[in-house]
Fold this sequence. Notes:
Bound molecules: 3-methyl-2-oxobutanoic acid, zinc ion
Shape: globular
Oligomer: single chain
Number of domains: 3
CATH architecture of the largest domain: Alpha-Beta Barrel
Largest sheet: 8 strands, parallel, barrel
Number of strands: 18
Radius of gyration: 24 Å
Structural class: alpha/beta
Strand content: 15-25%
Amino acid sequence: MSERMYIFDTTLRDGEQSPGASMNQQEKRRLARQLDQLGVDVIEAGFPASSQGEFESVREISSVIEKAQVAALSRCSNPDIDRAWEAIKEARRPRIHTFLATSNIHMQHKLNMTREQVLEAVANAVTRAAGYTENIEFSAEDASRSDWDFLARVLETAIGCGATTVNIPDTVGYTQPQEFSELILYLKKQVKNIDQAVISVHCHNDLGLAVANTLAALDAGARQAEVTLNGIGERAGNAALEEVIMALKVREDIHRLQTGVDSEQLYPACRLLSMIIGQPISAYKAIVGGNAFAHEAGIHQHGMIQNKQTYEIMTPDSIGRPPSEMVMGKHSGRHACQQRLEQLGYRLEPEQLDIVFAAVKKLADIKKQIFVEDLEALVLEEVFRIPDKYKLLYLSSLSGNMAIPTATLKMVVDGQEKQLSEFGVGPIDAVFNGISKIVDRSPELANFSITGITGGTDAQGEVTVKLEEGERTAVGRGSDPDIIVASAKAYINALNRLAKREEEKICVEL
Ligand code: KIV
Ligand code: ZN
């Protein structure tokens, strides 16, 4: 018999705080809903004490999540814990997640605290949290580089004061599967009250071992895994949710663990995140990468035709990957559109569906076949777009080997219409120069990439741009059958994100 374990998703907290992964409130709410549909047990919604914007967004997520527990992160300080509780108290199942570092290097150089002070701070913080809820998680930051004996004392203290989950993070991605497994076994033996708490693990991927370390810890008795979609997170990221889930599922014979995750929602969830943050999934990414189920070599194709199991250890269906065939055409109706969207994991409000359906019709006028990817791009562009400070109204571009590339643009900037024409070395340069002038900002273009969303010359172009302005960076994306328009949309989307980040300036660093 397999034992039930818990999945704690931190895409919206540890994932979101990594470069290029920031999301606005509406995008976070959308992703949180998808995570709830996916069946994770806990959604870490954010770190409320870090900014007003973060607080609001945790509060909003708390009010819309129906099944999962909603966790808020806080340092071990009274104001942080109070703020975390304020943000999640309306959630059906709120959890306070408080953390403090326990390694010598962190205690000496970052916290400037002695071991006794750390023990006292943990006891105070967990006791404070216990005044609000019985659902408390304590994380010993940099646990994997901590003195094991001291770590055991800290965990015992946290549990003694009311922590019901104790998390062992490999904060810097340093541990190895064997060592991490031994650490979990050690803690199970040495922490006297360990049976009163769930052991959790939280692995970073600096040495490419986050998933392997997570699985080793689960095999040793941990019963909660902290993960993110697509493995996004600080530096090299966190353990990827979809990889942990499918490893547990495909090799249940070894791990003997079950989760509440509906694996058929994995692909829609990973795609949604990728679309929201504008970061494409690598073709070689395990489980959800473009090549993950592609069989190119003749010998493989031959084997697959005889029996799929020759080269396939799981099916595309099992992760909810739709066949990339034509999904809609000019004559498809609103109902078909809704059905397709639901298959892709998008449950839209009627007015959102109206907007997407109108966009599908418009696209179908210029493009014969509408594919899954087109549909997703439209949903993102039309429904989950960041509220516009800058908006494109009109764009005309001139280029060619006998013309000076020129862009004429009309935009809305803070509610006011502005227009101008501008030159460039090429049409995209002209458009970007024009937009910069209109909005009166001149960020560095750190990255520009363009791909066809699907095959064919009538395919929509998908453009991703990364802008840098001082210390701030933002990624924007845009799609359109006209690649110049797609580029303008991506550039403006990134500018809107920069403007948003300015407003929601994070005042406290983790
Ligand atoms: O990596 C880490 O240690 C963390 C903690 C706050 C859990 O993200
Ligand atoms: Zn982390």
